[in-house]
Amino acid sequence: MRILVGFTTTPEGQAALRHAVTEARQHGGTLLVAHHEQVAPPVGDVPARVRSVEQHLGGLREELRASGVEVCVRTQLGVGSVAAELVRTAEDENVDLIVIGLRRRSPVGKLVLGSTAQEVLLTAPCPVLAVKRDDAAAAGRDAG
Length: 144
Hints:
This protein is α/β, with parallel strands linked by helices and about 140 residues long. It has six helices and five strands.
């Protein structure tokens, strides 16, 4: 089983990664961790943002490998939507499952701002597991 997780350094992204690892362990699957950084001209300080994410992912890569999960980590820059890039990666890599994190937003916020999760859910070529952040774990991290 090939599992793609759309990773961000947010509590929602962390929750998605935890669930994706669980799925990979349960099914003896391969985990593809993808982070897409959407950029628009002028590019600004994109290299610094990418370095920060790659440092974070580097530590995760070693931790995941030590846990016995086969993992591939990929960071991409692009002007396309994060959802479109995630779906494209799923198609290119022929994945069996996409795991994404969900933010809590009001219905009006979703209507006005759109939803990456909604776009992935509607256009993905495979099943999508949408994960809410673990508020207890997030509260513990925020307090510490």
